[in-house]
């Protein structure tokens, strides 16, 4: 057990920035809802009045999230799947249709990576990260859009990505996948505008979640110093932004990438693995 993240009681003690009822009458689908940011998003969506669809691979974690947000009296559908399987994604949207009609907002939050020097990433690990973060997100985007098109209505997609504008040493696979999601999002924001579909991305900087457990604690400590605010971001800071971007408050926004990163994109070098001596200041000749 580590100190990363917020538990359900801590999340419940916080207040979303958006007004009560912001999502009233709407269905919000969240992938990766059994942990971390996704779990925080489930709290936020339920508190803002949505029907909530919770997805991820591990059903026990999704049931746990459902129990935790039971305190807000939201309608909740738990649907385990891997987003890497396009047929499973189709089944998910059919289950949502049967229960709630149609999703209004799809939040593609599921994803992850492991730290590795790019030169050492094995083929299986490369495919796991690309197929999850790029492929899985794409399956979700395309199926959502098809359902909205067939129903003659629009919708809103938020893709949770990462800060990719500079290099991401130690996570090249995720850099490639997330940059791919951003390019895809900008492209279909144009193609799907006539369908009334908006697509935006939120790029978190370093956020305190249990997902941090995959990194060396020394690297995590160093990473907290790589933004101009010199700290971790918190789950609620991402949840507020994702809900704003997903809902009607941002109805004139599409194809956007909103960075919530304490200024990491403008400053600081961030290594998820040991920084080579080559880049250390002491190694620079006088
Ligand atoms: C420079 C800027 C850096 C910013 C990054 C920091 C900010 C971002 C933080 C986060 O995103 S934290 C939260 C995200 N959560 C996670 O990352 C969760 C943990 N990761 C995963 O679950 C995996 O990375 C995954 C690959 C996405 C899971 O996919 P899957 O379950 O299909 O994979 P596995 O079967 O577990 O593994 C497949 C394959 O991948 C390789 N591999 C997986 N984990 C590791 C590892 N820790 N180290 C090395 N290699 C790994 C490996 O080849 C696996 O195959 P096998 O060897 O098991 O046969
Ligand atoms: N925390 C941070 O600093 C940052 C996080 N991000 C991104 O934000 C998102 C949430 O991260 P965070 O909450 O921190 O980490 P977590 O590891 O807690 O969350 C990742 C979630 O994705 C789900 N998931 C993984 N693979 C699949 C799959 N194939 N199908 C369905 N669900 C899957 C996991 O659930 P299960 O295992 O049950 O499937 C898990 O709930 C991730 O995409 C992450 O990379 C981006 C930048 C920074």
Automatic annotation (TrEMBL):
Q: Where in the cell is it found?
A: Peroxisome
Q: Where's it mainly located?
A: other
Concerning SUPFAM superfamilies, the annotation shows: NAD(P)-binding Rossmann-fold domains
Q: Entry's Pfam families?
A: adh_short_C2
What pathway does the UniProt record associate with this protein?
Answer: Lipid metabolism
Record's superkingdom? Bacteria
- Could you tell me what this protein is called? Peroxisomal trans-2-enoyl-CoA reductase
Q: What organism does the record attribute this protein to?
A: Caenibius tardaugens NBRC 16725
